[in-house]
Amino acid sequence: MGVWICGLALLLSVFVASAAASVERIELMLADQRFVVEYVADPDSRRQGLMGRKNLASGTGMLFDFPQGTQPAIWMRNMVISLDLLYVDETGEIAQIFPNVPPCSSMPCQIYHADQPLRFVLEVPAGTARNLGLEEGQILDLGDLLEEPAPRW
């Protein structure tokens, strides 16, 4: 019985490690600075987001890709770190910036709503937008991603 449990635990750890390793990373430019971000486009990955992460290194982040017509709404429940939230349209233009958004430790949590349907939300370390001089109306270089269709779900 003990061997069976150890085998199951090993199999589970390999599965979890391979799932974590399979996160797609893409490179993009913010104000001439290179960022390598995790790209999430499916409902489960978008729901999980950066929840539970204890840190987010400079030059990194997470890019959420939403289906056409989505009006994103993000909350910071179960977050440990503060973030800058950049809401970006289908052309790469920054539509809204929510700077230095703090974690939420108890309900009710504030929800950060987009003013209009948007394709992307980019979460980066708190202070990034200010440090790079990012402003609404600027165009982000999202590379070939803008040529791809939005996710269907």
Automatic annotation (TrEMBL):
Signal peptide (residue range): 1-19
Gene3D superfamilies, per database record: Protein of unknown function DUF192
Keyword NADP: no
Keyword tRNA-binding: no
Domain of life: Bacteria
Ranges in coiled-coil conformation: none
Keywords: Signal
Xref: Pfam families: DUF192 (PF02643)
PANTHER family: UPF0127 PROTEIN MJ1496
Protein name in the entry: DUF192 domain-containing protein
Organism annotation: Halopseudomonas salina
